[in-house]
UniProtKB/TrEMBL annotation:
Keywords: Hydrolase
Residues that span the membrane, as ranges: none
Lineage summary: Bacteria, Bacillati, Actinomycetota, Actinomycetes, Micrococcales
Listed name of the protein: Dienelactone hydrolase family protein
SUPFAM superfamilies per UniProt: alpha/beta-Hydrolases
UniProt entry tagged with the keyword Hydrolase: yes
Family per record: Belongs to the AB hydrolase superfamily. AB hydrolase 2 family.
Amino acid sequence: MDTTPALDAAAVRWHGEDDGRPVVVLLHGYGSDETDLIALAPLLPDGFAYAAVRAPLPMPWPQPGHAWYPIEGLESRDAARTTEAAHRLLEWVETTLGADRSVGLLGFSQGGAISLQAMRLSPARFDFAANLSGYATPGVLPGDAALADARPPVFWGRGTHDTVIPEPLVAHTTDWLPGHADLVGRIYPGLGHAVSPAELDDLRVFLDKRLR
């Protein structure tokens, strides 16, 4: 039985006209919420509508915020729970945006991992993904072969001083992503587990190209 609840449709924050234009779904990181990444939306191309969703799991009391999947120590990341959360995201996309809407994903940290996992579960559903300080979950999913054939555009940015994502996951992502995506990879010297102005500039260029 799944232990990850559905996303809260009432918690979604929108930016931009919801007039049928392409949507970028924003997926926050561990311990944050939907108010986090929506603050970046005014700095991103206005040809998209942006929808910031809230992760489905409350943080353990007394910590604020929400999570996509539990973490007990930096080395403990259950791939099954990551996949469950990606399924919940897919359900929200189908229910809220429908089957024909053009959709891209933009996630930070845990949200970045979920963006790639959702794309692996449904390779034809998403036009692109941006993975900021996240990673690709180890293991094999049924959609991996189709994803490798389609090679959708994926932006992956990370800092040289990011000590939150374990090195084995960074190494796995470095090996896995080029074979499954049209990868735009950027490494930012001195950046920790965060988003820098330079990364935002690169992200804007990536999103602008998706509009063209």
